[in-house]
Amino acid sequence: MTPSSSIAAPGATPAPEEHHDHHPSYLVDGTTIKSWLLTVDHKRIGLMFLFWVLLFFLVGGIFALLIRVELLTPGPTIMDAMTYNRTFTLHGLVMIFLFMIPAIPAVFGNFLLPLMLGAKDVAFPRLNLLSLYIYLGGAFIALWGMLNGGLDTGWTFYTPYSAHTTTTVAPVLFGAFIIGFSSIVTGINFIVTCHTMRAPGITWFKMPLFVWAIYATSCIQVLATPVIGLLLCLVTVENLFGFGMFDPARGGDPVLFQHLFWFYSHPAVYIMVLPAFGVMSEVVATYSRKNIFGYRAVAYSSLGIAFVGFFAWGHHMFVSGQSTFTGGLFGVLTMLVGVFTAIKVFNWVGTVYKGAVDFRTPFAYFCGFLFFTVFGGMTGIALGTVSLDVAWHDTYFVVAHFHFIMVGATIMAFLAALHYWFPKMFGRTYHEGWGLVSAALIILGFNATFIPQFLLGNNGMPRRYYEYPERFQALNVASTAGASLLAFGFIIIAMYLTYALVYGKASGKNPWRSKGYEWVSESPPPTHNFVGPQPVFPEEPHFYVDPKKAEVPDAV
Amino acid sequence: MSELLNNILFLPEAASTFAERIDFLHHFVVGTTMVMSAAVGLAALFFFFRYRRRLPAQATEYVVPTLKTEFLFVSVPLVFFLAWFGIGFRDFTWVTTPPKDAMDVYVMGKQWMWKFAYPEGPNGVNVLHVPANRPVRLLITSRDVLHSFYVPAFRIKMDALPGRYTQIWFEATKPGTYQVLCTEYCGLSHSKMLAEVVVLPEEEYEDWIQEQRRGRLQDRQDALADNSLVPPVARMVEQGQVLAGTQGCLKCHSVDGSQHIGPTFLGMYDREEKLDNGQTIRVDEAYITQSMMDPGAHLVAGYQNVMPTYQGKLQGPETAAIVEYIKSLRTPNVREGASEGPAYDAIQ
Ligand code: HEM
Ligand SMILES: [Cu+2]
């Protein structure tokens, strides 16, 4: 795509050209190490998060491949049982706490929220920097613990096992506890930013949908994270000093642990997936040049998911011995989450209707995303159908389901975001051909990895199995083959994006001719985002109506 | 049709009444999911081609949904979801509510095995025998950490919690052997915590249980006969072993089964001995004691009456010790220990 200056920014007051030289982009405004490490610029903080999040994704990914290779044959393949148990724990923990939860909010949320709101920065820039260091501090404590002594409880830390295992639980829990603060701090910062920093003209119902999604996510983070913090403290105390909160041998209740754990961890899956929904709303609008079909429905459904997400935790516990009635209640509430997601899906497809579709890399990820969300979401509904969950609970069906919806949707959105906003962040473009090829590989690889796991679950293979009965082997081999395809796709992406970072063509300000608000500023933006007077935003985001046709057709 | 679907979906054999219900709903839900995914996917695909961009600066119409459209978006999925839920919840209530006439079995998970016990009946490890076509209620608990009792062929699963009982029931429809797996991560050998359910036809099950009962009654008698005096049994056995040596018993009786001047002690206790007068006698404490004091009273067929009497040479406790020693040379009995329901023990 050649850069074009012919298209005007959406209703914003463009910066006068002559000022340009005096306002270097945020990337080159200060080049010392210190100017990066101590920066309070939300864009630089976002970029540093990107670096660490990608690094942890690599770590988690390597462990995923080790798991898959081990499962290639029914018996021991490359490691012993203890090592395997530590490997899947490490994989789960790193992927969830160090990659998925911060990935989109901390990287793209940080980078884009102020730009999309016409603000110079987030509400509390120093707190923002602090949240990066809290995250890193927690991450290194947890990783240190995992490598020194290791942890074999799985990322769910279920008691009483976690209170009795001889592996080192305490540092890992403590690390996760610290990371929680990073999450809370970021959440508060975003909420306040949305409330106080919106440029003139941006009313609540003119906020970009990505902002809506981040806002809803932040609410969950602020409300739910303290619960897991408390829980992690209690388990640590139990493990170190033998308190009897959760261990029946000491008068405690193991099911209480599960309630507290899922009260956080169920909403946490929406912390991971809502930002992904937000990214996709932006991507589909830009590449089909359409206003979002049912903007309000999409915005409200984010809040709806955030809200009912708090009341569905018990669907992880249908066979934990809770009462039949409770099971039913949590089952119905789960269905509501499904309905809110369905609203979004229909509205995304509706957005393409009568659009002008440009099929580019991020749009390819949108297609993959649509499939993973519909299929992953519907299998979630199937799991919420209580009687079916009796058979599927804790089998590979569940593993496949959550990889589809959480991991699949989030990875699609993360990659779409990376490609879509790459020119915004670095002012350069990547090779479109390689982008499409690797997107195809990733989507294919992902399906090949996890569709066999649905079938494994049907066939009865429990999760967290180091060895398995012979009859499960064929499907496991298929899944491992898919995983290598997936890994191959990621390697290609890493290569051409690194290349583009250094040698990529200059992208110009708005290579996609998007009318998203963030494209109003320069690409890459200067340190304080906008040059000259604060921009105003008279139109709603993604308003692509032809000015020559003059009038906006009214709502049907 | 449903057989075919089960194969496509890799479902294991359906061998319980609950499995049949589950599979029906499974087909309904998965079928709808596939149709829906395909519909959304095809609609999207159609739109991508129908509305592809023709000019770089092409503008679009402003389209928003009508209230009716949004209403459809909400209500169609809601109706389906609630319908599934309704059927699913009915079946769930059914499987969590055992019928009154169900037969009880206690199940205890323990790192890394499953123990089964029948009230007033036998117990066993890693093999559960049940009759076909009769409701069986499982009362499940754990001795250490969480486990989960899962029989894929029955489509049932229930967590085993330490300090609590949970319950689930099933009615097996086909005799056969089905795998039991543990689905709650429980440490090092979680994936080796396997067991099996053996479903027997009703009559065979009755035979099996009778046989187990006999063994158990015998154990009861042993326990009663063992009127343990002061020294604990293990010490008595040791004592008896020493005495058997010093008193010269072992000069004529072997303990490894080999033939000698007298019958071997190995497996003697509880054996049916053929006597030279044509009768048979069961070897029990009384018979052993009598043979020591009055060896010629009941002569075993094929042996000569050469054994001296020990009358007056052995004290009461010494005699008892030798009897215990001989008892300890039984061939191992599979059914040991009392068979009450499992009790929760604290783990250390
Ligand atoms: C190449 C891609 C991946 C592969 C092949 C893969 C493979 C697996 C496998 C086989 C398990 C099951 C372990 C078990 O139950 O024994 C697993 C668990 C899990 N994976 Fe992945 N995974 C991949 C990517 C991801 C990503 C990207 C995330 C998150 C962002 C993730 C999050 C998890 C979590 C949370 C678990 C549960 C861990 C547990 O059971 O304790 N995975 N993964
Ligand atoms: Cu277990």
From TrEMBL, chain A:
It is a multi-pass membrane protein. Keywords: Electron transport, Heme, Iron, Membrane, Metal-binding, Respiratory chain, Transmembrane, Transmembrane helix, Transport. Gene3D superfamilies: Cytochrome c oxidase-like, subunit I domain (1.20.210.10). It is found in: Membrane. Pfam families: COX1 (PF00115). InterPro entries: Cyt_c_oxase-like_su1_dom, Cyt_c_oxase-like_su1_sf, Cyt_C_Oxase_1, Cyt_c_Oxase_su1_BS. Residues 36-538 form the Cytochrome oxidase subunit I profile domain. It comes from the Bacteria. The chain crosses the membrane at residues 45-68, 88-115, 127-147, 167-192, 212-241, 261-281, 293-313, 325-343, 363-384, 396-422, 434-455, 475-503. GO terms for molecular function: cytochrome-c oxidase activity; heme binding. One of its GO terms (cellular component) is membrane. Residues 1-21 are annotated as: Disordered. GO terms for biological process: aerobic respiration; electron transport coupled proton transport; respiratory electron transport chain. Belongs to the heme-copper respiratory oxidase family. This is Cytochrome c oxidase polypeptide I. It comes from Pseudomyxococcus hansupus. The lineage of its organism: Bacteria, Pseudomonadati, Myxococcota, Myxococcia, Myxococcales.
TrEMBL record, chain B:
It is found in: Membrane. This is cytochrome-c oxidase. Residues 235-330 form the Cytochrome c domain. Its EC number is 7.1.1.9. Keywords: Copper, Electron transport, Heme, Iron, Membrane, Metal-binding, Respiratory chain, Translocase, Transmembrane, Transmembrane helix, Transport. GO terms for biological process: ATP synthesis coupled electron transport. The chain crosses the membrane at residues 24-49, 70-89. InterPro entries: CcO_II, CcO_II-like_C, Copper_CuA, Cupredoxin, Cyt_c-like_dom, Cyt_c-like_dom_sf, Cyt_c_oxidase_su2, Cyt_c_oxidase_su2_TM_sf. PANTHER family: CYTOCHROME C OXIDASE SUBUNIT 2, CYTOCHROME C OXIDASE, SUBUNIT II. Residues 100-211 form the Cytochrome oxidase subunit II copper A binding domain. One of its GO terms (cellular component) is membrane. Belongs to the cytochrome c oxidase subunit 2 family. It comes from Pseudomyxococcus hansupus. SUPFAM superfamilies: Cupredoxins, Cytochrome c, Cytochrome c oxidase subunit II-like, transmembrane region. It is a multi-pass membrane protein. GO terms for molecular function: copper ion binding; cytochrome-c oxidase activity; heme binding; oxidoreductase activity. Subunits I and II form the functional core of the enzyme complex. Electrons originating in cytochrome c are transferred via heme a and Cu(A) to the binuclear center formed by heme a3 and Cu(B).
